[in-house]
Amino acid sequence: xxxxxxxxxxxxxxxxxxxxxxxxxxxxxxxxxxxxxxxxxxxxxxxxxxxxxxxxxxxxxxxxxxxxxxxxxxxxxxxxxxxxxxxxxxxxxxxxxxxxxxxxxxxxxxxxxxxxxxxxxxxxxxxxxxxxxxxxxxxxxxxxxxxxxxxxxxxxxxxxxxxxxxxxxxxxxxxxxxxxxxxxxxxxxxxxxxxxxxxxxxxxxxxxxxxxxxxxxxxxxxxxxxxxxxxxxxxxxxxxxxxxxxxxxxxxxxxxxxxxxxxxxxxxxxxxxxxxxxxxxxxxxxxxxxxxxxxxxxxxxxxxx
Length: 305
Known about the structure:
Blueprint: H1 3-21, E1 35-40, H2 42-45, H3 68-76, E2 80-83, E3 98-99, E4 110-111, E5 124-128, H4 131-134, H5 136-141, E6 160-161, E7 164-165, H6 166-188, E8 193-197, H7 217-241, E9 244-246, E10 272-274, E11 277-279, H8 287-300
């Protein structure tokens, strides 16, 4: 063999070895997850008024077209996706149907038990629940105040009796429900990665902004402190049950209801939003909030945002 031919053979061999050592192109890589089920309440459904998706749940669940489960499923290239999230859901609705006929003439429907979407082949589950179990959302509705201090009585006084905070006690008492929910997921989908998703920093324990948000500043701060407690409970429940935990709170501080449009990721009491422009559900994430939730979940499963 001539020296020139030996050189060509050597170069060809080197190129072949280099190509073999290179990883496959990302587009041809097999997705890590193939079957994703999203469970949760209105902050996971990212409920909306005008942009309701009905492909996975009844219209009465008010799932938005941009909620974080849908964003996560698209980003991960999920081939089988079921979104069971529904406004006003509690852990009871994991195993029981939820009537969402809010306006009877509209036939809003019934959301089947959320666990019905789980199968033995489900390999990714997110669950965002707990707020309705402790009644935090309902309590907010009772604290709207059109009058400033001292003309208005702080609504938190109804929860503070005998040196105890009844909402704090409810939050502690709800932990076994979250643990049991994760256990139920694992029984139905034993091979799944299970992630407990907490609540955005939509209300701050450090600030109020009456009358921008029509609630006494002390009451708004009280809700913010209870939200911190709720998320701490969810973290404990995830640890106890062996689930993963998605912290959407820490990285959303500074985007609460007291911020300006375009900065806040959760809307206040006035039912309008600029993200996207239109009607909104008070005290719920707007699309900016949903985008942040999606980024947090994707980071938890090791995918880029």
